[in-house]
Design a protein that fits this description.
It is built from ten helices and 17 strands. The chain is α/β, with parallel strands linked by helices and 375 residues long. Helix 9 links the parallel strand 14 and strand 15.
Length: 375
C-alpha cells in the first residue's frame, strides 16, 4: 500500500479531527488497512505509518523506527567512518512520512513536512537524543507544508554554522539558512565520484553551475583541477561556496549570476571547460508542471553542453522527484541534439544510501545524476 492517500479517496469523518490526529484506516468494506496521520485539509489526507493491526503508533513505535533508521546508517553502511553529516530519517523511506532529519556534526536538523509529525515532536526528539546523546536539535516546519497542513512551527534561534567532513573534504554548513536543512548530503558519493573522474581524466579546467555550497568545485580542486569557476544566483550560496573553497585550499573564481545570460556570454566568447557540472535546484513539486520543468532543463542543458570541450566531462543533475529518470534522459538526448553534441552516458546515479526509498514509493527516488562524456 502506498503510504500517502489523497484527500478525494477518504470519507470525511463524522467527529471533529484535529489536523495530524492518529487514526485507524479502514477500507470501504471495513477491512483494516493501517494506522497513520489524518489531515483532511491537506492534499495527502492520510500518511500511513503501519499496516500491522497489532502495531500501535506511540512513543515506543517512533523510537523503534528511529533506532532502525540509525542502525541502517551506522551499522550496515558504516557512515560514521566516512562522514559526520548524513540523512538520519528520510521520510517514507524510513517509514516516517512527513519527517526529515539530517545530522551535521553534533547538530540534528529536524524538518517537519506534516502536522502529525510536528505534533509528535517530543517523541521524535527523545528518540533522536537517545541515539545521539550529545547533540543539539534545531527544528523547523517546511513553509509549503505548514500552509498545506495547517501547523505553525517557527524555527528557533539557529546554532552557529558547523564544519563537517565527508571523504576527507570539509564544508561549512549554515544551520537554519534558506537551503532546506543547510547542506545536500544526497550528492556526497556523487561528489566523490566526480573527483575520481577529474583525477583520472587529468581535467584542469572545471565549471560548477548552480554551485550551491561549491561541493563539486571543491572536489575538482582537491583532485587536481586548477582553473575552476563556480556560478550561482543566490548570494548566500556564493558566500558559502567561497568559504568552502578557501577551507579546502582550492583557488577558484566564484560568480553571482543567472546561468542563462552567463552561459550565453561564455558561449559567444568561445570559452570551453574540460569538465562541467549542472546541478540546479528543484524545478517543481507539481505533476502538472512537469512539461515546463523539462523545458527549463532542456534550455540550461543545451547551453551547458555548448561550453564543454570535445571529450570533456559533463555531470547533469535533477532533484525534481516528479520528473522521472526516463524523462530526464530523454531531455538530455534532445539537449545534445539541439547543441549539436554527442553525449556518451557513463553512469546514472542517485542519492546516497542514507536516502533509502520504498519500492512502492518510486517518487521518493528523486535524485538523478548523469555522468557523461561530451564528444
Amino acid at each position: 500500500v502506498h503510504p500517502l492517500i489523497f484527500q478525494k479517496m477518504v470519507e470525511r469523518p463524522r467527529e471533529r479531527i484535529v489536523p495530524g490526529d492518529l487514526v485507524e484506516v479502514l477500507s470501504v468494506d471495513g477491512e483494516f488497512i493501517g494506522r497513520g496521520m489524518l489531515n483532511m485539509q491537506a492534499p495527502m489526507a492520510i500518511r500511513l505509518l503501519t499496516e500491522k493491526e497489532d502495531e500501535i503508533v506511540d512513543a515506543q513505535f517512533i523510537a523503534e523506527r528511529i533506532a532502525d533508521a540509525v542502525r541502517l546508517r551506522r551499522t550496515i553502511y558504516g557512515l560514521d567512518a566516512v562522514t559526520d553529516a548524513y540523512r538520519v530519517i528520510h521520510a517514507e523511506g524510513d517509514g516516517l512520512s512527513g519527517l526529515i532529519v539530517d545530522r551535521f556534526g553534533d547538530v540534528l536538523v529536524v524538518a517537519f513536512y506534516a502536522a502529525g509529525m510536528w505534533r509528535m515532536q517530543h517523541w521524535i526528539f527523545d528518540a533522536l537524543l537517545t541515539q545521539f546523546p550529545d547533540s543539539q536539535i534545531f527544528a523547523f516546519g517546511d513553509d509549503n507544508a505548514q500552509k498545506q497542513e495547517g501547523f505553525d512551527c517557527p524555527p528557533g534561534k539557529p546554532p552557529k554554522p558547523v564544519i563537517i567532513t565527508e571523504h576527507g573534504v570539509k564544508f561549512h554548513v549554515p544551520i537554519g539558512g534558506k537551503h532546506k536543512t543547510g547542506f545536500f548530503c544526497d550528492q556526497r558519493d556523487n561528489r566523490q565520484r566526480w573527483g575520481e573522474l577529474i583525477k583520472a581524466t587529468k581535467s584542469t579546467s572545471m565549471l560548477d553551475l548552480c554551485c550551491n555550497s561549491g561541493g563539486f568545485a571543491v572536489y575538482s580542486g582537491v583532485n587536481g583541477a586548477t582553473d575552476i569557476t563556480a556560478v550561482d544566483l543566490d548570494e548566500e550560496a556564493v558566500e558559502f561556496a567561497t568559504r568552502n573553497l578557501r577551507l579546502n585550499d582550492v583557488k577558484a573564481k566564484v560568480a553571482q549570476a543567472d546561468i542563462f545570460p552567463w552561459l550565453r556570454e561564455a558561449q559567444e566568447a568561445g570559452k570551453r571547460w574540460d569538465a562541467v557540472v549542472l546541478d540546479p535546484a528543484k524545478m517543481t513539486r507539481a505533476r502538472d508542471e512537469v512539461i515546463d520543468a523539462l523545458k527549463k532543463y532542456l534550455d540550461m542543458n543545451k547551453l551547458a553542453l555548448s561550453v564543454v570541450k570535445p571529450g570533456g566531462l559533463f555531470l547533469t543533475c535533477s532533484c525534481t522527484g516528479v520528473v522521472s529518470e526516463e524523462q530526464f534522459l530523454d531531455m538530455l538526448r534532445r539537449a545534445a541534439f539541439y547543441a549539436g553534441r554527442e553525449v556518451q552516458v557513463l553512469e546514472v546515479r542517485g542519492a546516497g544510501p542514507d536516502h533509502p526509498w520504498l519500492a512502492q514509493v518510486n517518487e521518493s527516488r528523486y535524485l538523478k545524476s548523469v555522468f557523461c562524456r561530451v564528444l
